[in-house]
Each structure stands twice: as structure tokens, then as C-alpha cells.
Automatic annotation (TrEMBL):
Keywords: DNA damage, DNA repair, DNA replication, DNA-binding, DNA-directed DNA polymerase, Magnesium, Metal-binding, Mutator protein, Nucleotidyltransferase, Nucleus, Transferase, Zinc, Zinc-finger
PROSITE patterns tied to this protein: UMUC
Recorded family membership: Belongs to the DNA polymerase type-Y family.
Protein name per the record: DNA polymerase kappa
Enzyme kind, highest EC tier: transferase
GO BP terms: DNA repair; DNA replication; error-free translesion synthesis; error-prone translesion synthesis
Provenance organism: Gigaspora rosea
Lineage: Eukaryota, Fungi, Fungi incertae sedis, Mucoromycota, Glomeromycotina
Length: 402
DNA sequence: GGCCGTTAA
DNA sequence: TAGTTTAACGGCC
């Protein structure tokens, strides 16, 4: 079950067995691990049910659906837009690279950014030991005792984000930032102002980023956001990859691609698809009738679009947030009064954050994580919008005790 | 509408 | 000894 994300950059060619063994030894008696095992069991059950459904379908004659599904696939295909040139740019080992830049004594050594309880990023030296983001520091230390863990310096990462966004804006003023270190650019218009090729322009963007921040970035260039994101991973670190806006090249690229490479398909969906013997995008297309019969139309559409290499081409800078939240892990507490005091602390912060953006909300949700890592949510839609700390506390308290 | 689970950075 | 935080979205009842 301990599941090393070896599809991530920098993790190829390591002794995965050994790494998993060390992680397992460090984890096996923990409440966290027990909870993961429980989730895993639930997933096994789900895949078994799905497999049964699949086997039942295989015994049926599905030819009556072939036409319908072909039409659906063709309708999706007709929406393919090859007119744009979309770039996905991703900074290499972002936080770790910033720290190495500012402290040369860290260079060449395995290091990670974060804390003993959680790592945000690791550099490539640390990745060779199996140390990766979203891994607790204390486990990383077992994999690599020499590992240096540097605390996060968010002010710095924000400052660098500002610098790289200035570069992005030169090529697409409507670029979409996805996080501090990642963005999509539509360079179609920019290309009309120059004789340079897309590859040359992206080399230039990465060069400017390097000159202005002393940090490297990787990039993918393709017809849409889905493909450019996948491509930005291809020549990481400090590289770029271009997939031409051409249906033959796209299909040759996407067919053999493992489904896990599709943004939105994670560990669980990969396992679900694997249960019905689908592990590549090509297999999604070859089994479209089964997917049609087994999944919702939203999921079916998502799978087919991805497997055809069709993605959004609308890169836009406006963003409307739909929710705002705050969460903290704290020492074990069980007395209602202690928990309400925590609630009060959190709503004070949340009210301040809401005020910064002049926001209010109509639904309040409270999430608890128990010592056994089980998560429960309680929520309520209210009659009016709220935003003050007192209201958040009042309704939060109410919701918590439904 | 309420709650759970998945994904991603 | 110890396993984060924030946001969005889909499925299911």
C-alpha cells in the first residue's frame, strides 16, 4: 500500500522496493498507517464491485451502444481546437531551489524544505533517496539520515513568484497562475509579433526567468492546457518539450501515455481503471463502451477528452474564489470547551482573511480530524451571508453539534 | 442540501 | 514521538 509516487520527476531509477520497506517500517504501527489501510480496504471493495460490473458487461452484447458511444466520441472530437499555442511553465523543485540559491552550502547535498512533520519539496539529490514532497520529515530522515531540512520561507517564494509573473506578463498579460511556481500562458498572440518559433520563445522565457531569479524552470508547449501540462514534465528539470498542434502527433503522443499522467487522475482512479485493465489512454479509447456503461457522463466525458488529448484552451487571469477555509492540526483535545476555544482561534483568523478580500459566505462547514485520522464534516447553508468572527463562531458552534 | 472522497500544489 | 494546508469538484443519498 505504501505507494511511492515514482511517476514524479527525479524518482526514476531508485530502489523503490527498499524505499517502500523503510517507509513501511517507519509507518506500520502508526494511527496514520492504520487509517490508510482502512481507506485502502474500502478502495479494494470498490474496485471489486466495479470489476463485477465490468465482467457482467463483458458477457453482454454491447453492440447496440457502439453507435451511441461513437457519436459521443465524435462530438467530443469535433470540439478539438488546434489554433492556440499554450505553454505550461513549472519551476524546478521550487522551494528547494530558492533555498539552495540563497545558501550555497546546501548545494549538492540532499535537502528538503518543510518540517519534521511535513516536507513541501525536496531537491534532486534527496529524491534519489526516495525523499519527496508530502512526506513527513521524520520518515525522510530514515531514508536519508544526512538530509538537511530547511524551514519554509514563504516571503521569499512570494517574492520570486512576483518576479516570474512579470516575465509571464510580457508574453501573455492574461496568463493563469496555478500556484506560486506554476502558470499557463497562451502565446498565440505573442507569436504573431515575431518570427521566432514557439520553442525559441519558450527558451527565451526560461532564460529570462533564470536571469532574473537565478532559478530554472521547465515548460511544455502544446495545443491546450492538458497537453502542455503533461509536456512540461517530459524534460524536467531545466528543459522543455513541444508537442506540435497536429492530430497525428497528438494521438501518437497520448495513446501509449499511462492514465496516471493525466492531470485529475490520481492514485485511486488509476487503480480503479487498472481493475478493468485500463492503464493507458489508448485503452480508454478502446474501452469507451465499457466506460460509458460504468461511469457517469461527467466521468465518461472527462476520460474521453483526456484520452483524445483534448483540453481547455482558455487561459484567463480572472479568478472567482468559491470558498475560504482555515485548518490546523493541534494536540489531542476532547473537552468541548477546549475545542470551542480552538474554534474561536480559527474563526478569528478566518474572519481577518475574509475581510482582506471583502468576502462573505452563505454555507459554513466544519471539518474534524480525529486522533485516528478519520475525517468528518458538518455543514449548513444559512439564510444570510456571514463574515464576522462572532457569526462564524456562533454558527460554527451550532453546526458542530448537529 | 449535506457529507464523503479524490486531486493537486 | 511524529503524518499539512487550501481549494475545487464529483458521487451518492
Amino acid at each position: 500500500m505504501s505507494d511511492l509516487a515514482s511517476h514524479k520527476a527525479g524518482l526514476q531509477g531508485i530502489d523503490k522496493e527498499k524505499v517502500n520497506q523503510v517507509i513501511y517500517e517507519a509507518s506500520k504501527n502508526s494511527a496514520f498507517y492504520l487509517n490508510e489501510a482502512r481507506k485502502d480496504e474500502a478502495l479494494n471493495h470498490k474496485t471489486e464491485q466495479l470489476l463485477k460490473k465490468y465482467e457482467a458487461l463483458r458477457r453482454q452484447d454491447l453492440s447496440t451502444f457502439n453507435n451511441k458511444v461513437d457519436n459521443l466520441v465524435q462530438a467530443i472530437e469535433r470540439k478539438r481546437d488546434l489554433s492556440r499555442t499554450i505553454v505550461h511553465i513549472d519551476m524546478d523543485a521550487y522551494y528547494a531551489s530558492v533555498e539552495e540559491r540563497d545558501n550555497p552550502s546546501l548545494r549538492g547535498k540532499p535537502m528538503a524544505v518543510g518540517s519534521n512533520s511535513m516536507l513541501s519539496t525536496s531537491n534532486y539529490e534527496a529524491r534519489r533517496y526516495g525523499v519527496r514532497s508530502a512526506m513527513p520529515g521524520f520518515i525522510a530522515k530514515k531514508l536519508c539520515p544526512e538530509l538537511i531540512i530547511v524551514p519554509c520561507n514563504f516571503d521569499k517564494y512570494h517574492a520570486v513568484a512576483k518576479q516570474i509573473r512579470e516575465v509571464f506578463a510580457r508574453y501573455d498579460p492574461n496568463y493563469t497562475p496555478m500556484s506560486l511556481d506554476e502558470a499557463y500562458l497562451d502565446i498565440t498572440e505573442y507569436l504573431e509579433t515575431t518570427d521566432k518559433t514557439p520553442d525559441e520563445i519558450v527558451e527565451q522565457i526560461r532564460k529570462e526567468i533564470h536571469e532574473e531569479t537565478k532559478l530554472t524552470a521547465s515548460a511544455g508547449i502544446a495545443a491546450n492546457m492538458l497537453l502542455s501540462k503533461i509536456c512540461s514534465d517530459f524534460n524536467k528539470p531545466n528543459g522543455q518539450y513541444r508537442l506540435p498542434n497536429n492530430i497525428n502527433d497528438i494521438m501518437r503522443f497520448i495513446r501509449p501515455l499511462p492514465v496516471r499522467k493525466i492531470p485529475g487522475i490520481g492514485r485511486v482512479t488509476e487503480r480503479i481503471l487498472k481493475a478493468i485493465d485500463i492503464s493507458t489512454c489508448g485503452a480508454i479509447l478502446d474501452n469507451s463502451v465499457y466506460l460509458y456503461r460504468m461511469f457517469s457522463s461527467i466521468s465518461f466525458n472527462f476520460f474521453i477528452r483526456a484520452a483524445l488529448g483534448i483540453g481547455s484552451t482558455t487561459v484567463k487571469s480572472e479568478y472567482k474564489r468559491k470558498s475560504m477555509s482555515i485548518s490546523r492540526t493541534f494536540c489531542n483535545l476532547s473537552q468541548p470547551n477546549e475545542l470551542f476555544a480552538k474554534l474561536r482561534e480559527l474563526v478569528d483568523y478566518l474572519a481577518a482573511d475574509l475581510a482582506k478580500e471583502y468576502l462573505h459566505g452563505k454555507t459554513i462547514a466544519l471539518t474534524f480530524k480525529s486522533v485516528s485520522f478519520k475525517v468528518t464534516t458538518r455543514e449548513r447553508s444559512l439564510k444570510r451571508y456571514i463574515y464576522t468572527a462572532d457569526d462564524l463562531y456562533h454558527f460554527g458552534k451550532q453546526v458542530s453539534s448537529i
